[in-house]
Design a protein that fits this description.
By secondary structure, the protein is of the alpha/beta class. The chain has a domain of about 200 residues: Alpha/Beta hydrolase fold, catalytic domain (Rossmann fold). Helices cover about 40% and strands about 15% of the residues. The chain has 11 helices and 8 strands. The chain has an 8-stranded mixed β-sheet, with helices on both faces. Strand 1 and strand 2 form a beta hairpin. The chain is globular and about 55 Å long.
Length: about 290
């Protein structure tokens, strides 16, 4: 587990990190701070794709299997989101709008005018907001394992709100939360050739920051405006998902005019646990929405 109370405190990575990771760099985002981003320095003639990861993980923990499969045609730009990994710190009352604006600040720092935005779970909500707030910067959307909102009724709403209430105490006394986070990560990550790397990558995040973002996710709702999306859009539905129900994912696709729907027979974390199915599906979705018309 990372030590200290700084949001950027991180453990050292082990020697068995996956191969094929794009270049990594810390970008200074004016007025915001410094954040870690995966993006090859040379774009060439490739299409820029902003990959936006899910809640409680990092860009690499989500997209390590994805990067090599896109590299011939697409330049992946994958930041650690605010409150996650080596991203900007999350303090105070946070909105998902802030994460969307952070993503556009990353594009600014890299000199990218427009990108396809592919978001996973939380990242799918952020991707929707990038289009809503900065439509001129979005060439297309791929929305994965996500929905128009994440509320599940009064109990679920209270659960999300409670994370913001608990976060200040966790920031002051991080020890118990860090211990619980470490136990959860070690219990869920199966042994394998990259297991140590993956566990340490998940443990980069500060528990208080994750709670702040979780509270913001609970307040997200795009129902009133998602039907206005006017860029090529694909929705990837994980059909065995117990975190964001397939019905909600399909509802998102139905609400966006002309959206293409793709299915992966896997759980919510299929990008990692079913990468042999999920990664080719993402590639196919990108190829379809970027094909000349």
């Amino acid at each position: 587990m990372a030590t200290g109370t700084d949001d950027h405190a991180t453990p050292g990575l082990g020697p068995l990190a996956p191969v094929g990771l794009p270049d990594g760099q810390v970008l200074d985002l004016p007025g915001r701070g410094a954040a870690f981003v995966r993006a090859d320095v040379e774009r060439g003639d490739r299409t820029d794709v902003l990959l936006v990861h899910g809640w409680t993980v990092t860009a690499d923990a989500t997209f390590a299997p994805t990067y090599p499969a896109l590299a011939d045609r697409y330049r992946a730009i994958a930041p650690d989101l605010r409150g996650h990994g080596r991203g900007l710190p999350a303090r105070g009352r946070l909105r998902l709008d802030d994460l969307a604006d952070d993503c556009v600040a990353v594009l600014d720092a890299l000199g990218v005018e427009r990108a396809v935005v592919a978001g996973y779970s939380l990242g799918g909500a952020v991707a929707q907001l990038v289009w809503r707030r900065h439509p001129d910067r979005v060439a297309g959307l791929v929305l994965c394992s996500t929905a128009r909102h994440f509320q599940t009724g009064p109990a679920g709403d209270l659960w999300y709100r409670g994370q913001a209430w608990v976060a200040p105490a966790v920031r002051l006394w991080p020890g118990p939360a860090r211990s619980r986070m470490q136990q959860a990560v070690h219990g869920k990550v199966a042994d394998g050739p990259h297991a140590d790397w993956y566990r340490q990558e998940l443990l980069r995040s500060h528990p208080a920051g994750l709670l702040q973002v979780g509270s913001a996710l609970g307040r997200f709702r795009s129902t009133a405006w998602i039907g206005d999306v006017d860029v090529p859009t694909a929705v990837i539905v994980t059909t065995r998902d117990r975190t964001v129900s397939p019905r909600r994912q399909q509802g998102l696709a139905a609400a966006i005019p002309g959206a293409r729907t793709y299915e992966v027979a896997g759980p919510h974390n299929a990008a990692v646990t079913r990468s042999d199915q999920w990664v080719p599906t993402l590639r196919r979705a990108l190829d379809d929405i970027t094909a000349p018309t």
